[in-house]
Structures are given as structure tokens and as C-alpha cells.
Design a protein that fits this description.
single chain; alpha/beta; 2-enoyl-CoA Hydratase, Chain A, domain 1; 2 domains; 5-stranded parallel beta sheet; two-stranded antiparallel sheet; about 35% helix; about 15% strand
């Protein structure tokens, strides 16, 4: 049976009969029509609204002389946004993932520690401690360490906070990241079964005159002895073993 050209917006090609799609027929794309009042009186049904939008979009494309493919909306590249409920107001809002973690007193160190990243971590810890110093801070570490001075700034801030700080190693903690892992409160330092922890003496790249190189060397030796002493105190092991 031949397909009339006026009964459908899509025609069969090369004599091969294909299913026709009428402009007036409803198209259901795996969605089920629900009653507008299924979610309560006076409230919008998101499923019905979504179905109507999909139906109108498909209907507008099937009524053209040539079928067109709908554009696919891709997820934007960047920090994902997650729903977060404000505990005081009880309202929901979309915030970026790191902001949601900070509000739950979770701090994540997952990159090389430089001055900018260190300042961000410092500001976050100081703010959370000022809001409520009776709750614990959770620091998750998965990184290679970083520069000496910014890493030591994070360590000194951890020791000055009134809030207890629990450290967790997920992945690996090398060099000064491992030192920050040991700086957590006793009884609240954890490492995952497959995580890797490695420590080494601090290194520097001294350049210039002989006096400058000697001063840099003396400073590195002083910091090395300080790190060993703090590790011995945090772990309960003698300095020689550390």
C-alpha cells in the first residue's frame, strides 16, 4: 500500500516502506504520562513538564521536510555542582563540590602545595574553626607534597586550631603530605589499605654566593631536625628510628 504524501510528514524512500510518523500523533520517548496532581495539588509535576518539552521538541522536528537530529546538551567541563541543604534555613541550593565539602568541614589536599593553595586551605581552616571549634575537621590527603614553607604554614595552623583535626590518606601521601598526615590528632589518623606513604628529607635549590648557599643549607638542616623531632613526638617513636 502506498503511503500518501499528505498523511505524513516523513515519506518512505526508494520504495521501501518505513513507519510513518504523523504530525498529530503523540510521541512517547520512554516516558509515562502521569496525572498533574500526582505530586499534590498546586505543585508542578516535573515529569509531565519534561515530557511536554520532549514531545514539543520531537514534534517540531518531525514536521519539517527533512528530519533533523536534536542537539545533545553536554555537561559543562569544570567543577561539578551538587545540591546542598542549608542546615539553618532548610532550603536547597546548588553549590560547587568543593564548597559543599567545606561546609561539611571536609578539607581535601589533592595537589602540589604551593602558596596559593596553602592560603586557601589556611583561610578555610581558620574560618571553620571560628564558626564552631567543638566539631572536628576532616582532612583528606592524596598528593605529592609541595613547597616547604607553604606546607609548614598548614602544619602550624593545624597545631594552633582549637578544633580537632583528623587526617585521612586516600591514594598516596609523599614527602610533606605524609608529614601533614602524621600531624592529625592521635586516634584520628587513618590510611586506606592500598594507600602509599613516603617521607624524605627536605630539599632546596640554593643558588648564588657561597654565603647564601651555606645559609640555605643551615636552614634546611634546621628544618629537617625540626621535622624529625615533630614526627617522633607525633608517632611516639625515637628520633633515631624516624
Amino acid at each position: 500500500m502506498a503511503v500518501s504524501s499528505t498523511s505524513s510528514c516523513l515519506h518512505s524512500r526508494n520504495g521501501i516502506h518505513q513507519p510513518t510518523l504523523s504530525c498529530a500523533s503523540k510521541v512517547f520517548v520512554g516516558l509515562r504520562v502521569q496525572s498533574p496532581n500526582s505530586y499534590g495539588i498546586g505543585k508542578s509535576n516535573l515529569n509531565v513538564e519534561f515530557h511536554n518539552k520532549v514531545y514539543k521538541s520531537i514534534e517540531s522536528r518531525t514536521c519539517n521536510s527533512k528530519p533533523t537530529r536534536a542537539r545533545v546538551a553536554m555537561m559543562p567541563i569544570g567543577t561539578p555542582r551538587v545540591p546542598y541543604r542549608n542546615p539553618t534555613e532548610g532550603t536547597w541550593q546548588w553549590v560547587d563540590l568543593w564548597n559543599a565539602l567545606y561546609r561539611e568541614r571536609v578539607i581535601f589536599i589533592g595537589q602540589h602545595i604551593d602558596e596559593e593553595f596553602s592560603n586557601q586551605i589556611l583561610a578555610t581552616m581558620l574560618y571553620l574553626d571560628s564558626v564552631d571549634n567543638s566539631k572536628k575537621l576532616y582532612m583528606y590527603i592524596n598528593g605529592p607534597g609541595g613547597d616547604l614553607t607553604p606546607s609548614m604554614a598548614i602544619y602550624d595552623t593545624m597545631q594552633s586550631l582549637q578544633s580537632p583535626v583528623g587526617t585521612h590518606c586516600v591514594g598516596y601521601a609523599y614527602n610533606l603530605a605524609g608529614f601533614l598526615l602524621a600531624a592529625g590528632e592521635k586516634g584520628n589518623r587513618f590510611a586506606m589499605p592500598l594507600s602509599r606513604i613516603a617521607l624524605q628529607s627536605p630539599a632546596g635549590a640554593a643558588r648564588g654566593q657561597a654565603d647564601d648557599i651555606r645559609n640555605e643549607t643551615d636552614e634546611l638542616l634546621r628544618i629537617r631536625d625540626y621535622l624529625f623531632k615533630e614526627l617522633a613526638q607525633k608517632t611516639g617513636q625515637p628520633v633515631d628510628k624516624v
